Here is the input.
Amino acid sequence: MTQPTQPFSERYGRWGVVAGAGEGLGAAFALDLARRGMNVLLIARREHQIKHVASQIQSSFGVTARCLAQDLANVETVAEIERELADKDVGVLVYNAAHIPLGSFLDTEMADIEQAVAVNVRGPIALIRAIAPGMRERRRGGIVLMSSLAGLQGAPGLITYSSSKAFNIVLGEGLWRELRDCDIDVLTCIAGAVRTPGYARYSSRDTPGIQEPETVARQALDALPKGPRFVPGFTNRLTAQFLSRLLPRRAAIALLAKASHPDE
Ligand SMILES: NC(=O)c1ccc[n+]([C@@H]2O[C@H](COP(=O)([O-])OP(=O)(O)OC[C@H]3O[C@@H](n4cnc5c(N)ncnc54)[C@H](OP(=O)(O)O)[C@@H]3O)[C@@H](O)[C@H]2O)c1
Here is the structure.
């Protein structure tokens, strides 16, 4: 692995927190924070997965990795996280976890939609409110929110997910400006397809421009000082321009409707 050129942990702090860290992009973020010299708190529901990532971190980078097997959809989880972080100087929060209800909006169970709102919308708000005040006191910190090209317009078949990802883009932009005065960097990473277990559950085909999770995590953390938004990958940057600036809105929605059913 290449060594980072920036003293990342000096700029941001000693601990990184990754919400949704057991596999795919979340694991890649956790490993990349460790590569940059940070201790990492890994949060996900499946304990064996975060434990596996923690042992990789400790053996490869010699930093500390702690595991919290909790459901980010539960309101009580934030209190658990606060307890765990009470004596830690948190430098970077990456909110990666997401829930994706698939299918037509009216035929989706309300519980499925509520899970997406809890994990994708309430989760980042609650963790930022728990963690950013400490960053403000120390006058250093960074926050990465994971969003998606699907959040740039309505996406039939993925409506709750795409709306929640649009929310994260706007949340990140507002925070980027508000927290800049406290020396906290905020970046929303607007990813295209990334080869993760989450992606494989949704599509059996590679989308053009698909990226590896390690590449996205590294590029997003490199871009953290340059918020408010970052689209990783040349093809995805072209797609983002096309969707949000060049195509009429109706055509962009029609394109997403097609892309939301990749296996049809
Ligand atoms: N993959 C893509 O193509 C792609 C494209 C654009 C944007 N993104 C964004 O990138 C992020 C990662 O997506 P991914 O599908 O690729 O996932 P992933 O990184 O493969 O895994 C998601 C992680 O979140 C955890 N998680 C999910 N729900 C959770 C909950 N309720 N509580 C605690 N942890 C939870 C999962 O572990 P447990 O299940 O064990 O809890 C898992 O470790 C998402 O925000 C997504 O919107 C992904």
